[in-house]
Design goal:
Helix content is 28%, strand content 24%. With 317 residues, the chain is α/β, with parallel strands linked by helices. It is elongated. The structure holds flavin-adenine dinucleotide.
């Protein structure tokens, strides 16, 4: 019998979270994914993503309560959440509640002969670690964008999940203000390509012209260092790193970024890293696949023009 891996998705209004395919893909590599969903309407889509079972929690159920109900019912080999703000919050509360080991920010989930193990990339990629719980099923948060494998579509078994509110304390959301995304650019957390800028851009106008311009030419998302955010060149949502988002795109381009370890922890697992900096000793060059030593104000407009020229050439063919 195939072992069950419980997947707890972040709740989003009116649809599936973009991380669903990745979480289910990672779970399917080590067992049969059973997914806690908040809407029965999502069951077919979850089956397409490879969910063998879909457990539909009542509307508004707390994620940790729902996870516990599914956990008690299924006795899974591991419980997987996304390493997002919501996922980390629910995973931590759930792990404390069930007394299980919490393996955070995993970049891969595998099995060895003793059970589930996870891969981790630490300190700007300086160290790779493999972790396992010494006993019982681990609770895992998976870094978004780190697993490419996707599961095959299946016809899921769909059941209702009875969730008894635990009454345990949880973060209480007292008000929600919807901020409409003004930008049509890809979402930073899930984008394949990211162009990130540093404080050396100097102003919000220049940040938008060079970093935003290169991102648009490539169809990429925009990211930034904390220093650029602190200087007001770009909103906090763009911050990559220890106190921002952790990303794992296929391509990361760092524009005038020094490569402080607090930034590197957020992007070091990108498949291909390109850095542009005047300082050949900038630490970002230590992890870059391609380094360009030069002035961003000279080079980036030329790169944008070249990318646009090639794109229009392709369009004409
Ligand atoms: C607790 C803590 C948490 C933090 N969290 C984060 C985080 O989540 N994310 C984060 O990014 N930082 C974080 N930081 C800040 C981090 O330590 C660095 O200060 C920050 O990442 C540096 O940003 P930067 O590369 O834009 O600036 P700098 O380090 O000042 O580097 C600017 C770079 O631009 C280059 N440059 C200048 N002019 C040009 C030019 N014309 N052309 C080309 N290159 C040029 C310079 O050579 C330099 O390398 C944190 C710090 C602390 C203490």
């Amino acid at each position: 019998m195939q072992h069950t891996i419980l997947v707890v998705l972040d709740t989003v209004d009116g649809g599936l979270t973009p991380t669903a395919a990745e979480l289910i893909g990672a779970a399917a590599a080590v067992g049969a994914p059973a997914v806690v969903a908040s809407r029965v309407d999502d069951a077919d889509a979850l089956g397409q993503l490879g969910a063998a079972r879909v457990l539909v929690a009542p509307e508004g159920a707390d994620a940790a309560d729902a996870a516990q109900a599914a956990f008690d019912e299924l006795g899974p080999d591991a419980v997987v959440f996304a390493h997002t703000i919501a996922g980390r919050d629910a995973a931590a509360r759930f792990a404390v509640r069930v007394g299980r080991a919490l393996l955070t920010d995993a970049t891969g989930i595998r099995r060895d002969d003793q059970g589930i193990i996870t891969d981790h990339s630490n300190y700007g990629g300086t160290y790779s670690a493999v972790a396992a719980a010494t006993h019982l099923a681990p609770v895992i948060t998976l870094r978004v964008g780190s697993v490419e494998a996707r599961a095959e579509a299946v016809q899921p078994e769909v059941t209702e999940l009875a969730v008894t509110p635990s009454g345990k304390r949880a973060a209480e959301v007292v008000s929600v203000e919807r901020v409409e995304r003004a930008s049509s650019r890809p979402d930073l957390l899930t984008a394949d390509k990211v162009v990130a800028g540093g404080v050396s851009l100097g102003s919000d106008d220049m940040f938008e012209e060079l970093v935003g311009g290169l991102a648009d030419a490539l169809g990429a998302a925009v990211g930034a260092t904390r220093s650029a955010v602190d200087e007001g060149q770009v909103p906090y949502e763009a911050q990559i790193g220890q106190t921002g988002v952790l990303i794992s795109p296929k391509l990361y381009i760092g524009v005038g970024i020094s490569g402080a370890v607090q930034h590197l922890v957020g992007m070091q697992t990108a498949d291909t890293i390109v850095a542009i900096n005047t300082d050949e000793d900038a630490p970002i060059f230590d992890i870059a696949d391609f380094g360009i030593i030069g002035d961003i104000f000279d080079l980036v407009p030329e790169i944008i023009a070249e990318v646009e020229r090639r794109a229009s050439g392709e369009a004409e063919q």
